[in-house]
Amino acid sequence: MKHLSIELYKKMFLIRSAELQIQEIYAQDEMKTPMHMSMGEEAIVAGVVGALNAEDQVLGTYRSHALYLAKTGDTERFYAEMFGKVGGCARGKAGSMHLSALGQGLLCCSAIVASGIPVAMGAAFANKYKNNGKRVAVFFGDGAMDEGVFWETINFCGLHKLPILFICEDNGFAVHTRREKRQRFSSDHQLFENFGIKAFEENTTDPEIIYNTTRNALNHLQTTGQPCFLRFHYYRYLEHVGINEDFDAGYRDREEFLAWREKDPLRMQRQKLLGQGVSLALIEALEHEINAKVEAGIRFARQSSFPAECETYQGVFQCA
Ligand SMILES: Cc1ncc(C[n+]2csc(CCOP(=O)(O)OP(=O)(O)O)c2C)c(N)n1
Question: What is the reported pTM?
Fold first, then answer.
């Protein structure tokens, strides 16, 4: 139990530490890619990825720094991609919004809302066909549920009992529009049951609750073959895109943020570890080690070169 608490804290600390560095560096204009920051959602990604096996596959959105870091633990290819360098996970061509790590099961991330969802269905279909035991978890925001392709995919996956978890990282906003102004439905259980999909929901910043909910969903998948839909609520700390706060933009209140910030996943988990008797010295040593890994990633990225011009059309789809 203590081991799990520490492992989840390490995943979350890596994500937060890496993004704090981005916040500092981005202002210097060394990174040209748009930034959709994960700050506030660390517990979801840490808990879900922590519950999956290493060979399981994940797909994400343009807001996937957390997913990449939790699934791979890598900082070098991560930062090199942010800097647009050849050492990056996509040789500097993808930027922050299209991270991938095929060898570690991160199949793709995409800037087109909901576009990863049918791709995840294809991966789950292939896994079932090959009978290889791999599960797929596809991450998306509540805004992706406004897209028709989400419902087509839900229908097909429910019908064919594909081994897939739908992970909705629900921050209640699509850019600046609240969910209540976009969606008529509110309760998931009946809705998804009609498609043969079991729904779970948690409103928590505790990664262990998210871990356990995901384990329950995986057990359900294992025993019934039914795909699962998991809605996890969180609060986006920063603006939709960018590294700043936006509480003066008029679509949300700072008070809302402060209430969530009280339950900040990093602070809560650190307190939990201390309460479990983990020494402050050990926690600080882990944090120090992770910060060093983050700094090493940034050094690697700065030393990596920009792709040569002749690489422009390599590794990308081209029309004849
Ligand atoms: C198909 C499509 N429509 C619109 C956009 C513009 N857009 C980018 S992000 C976004 C909101 C998505 O909100 P959500 O899915 O809740 O994710 P979040 O940004 O909150 O993580 C929109 C409408 C897009 N990228 N793709």
Answer: 0.97
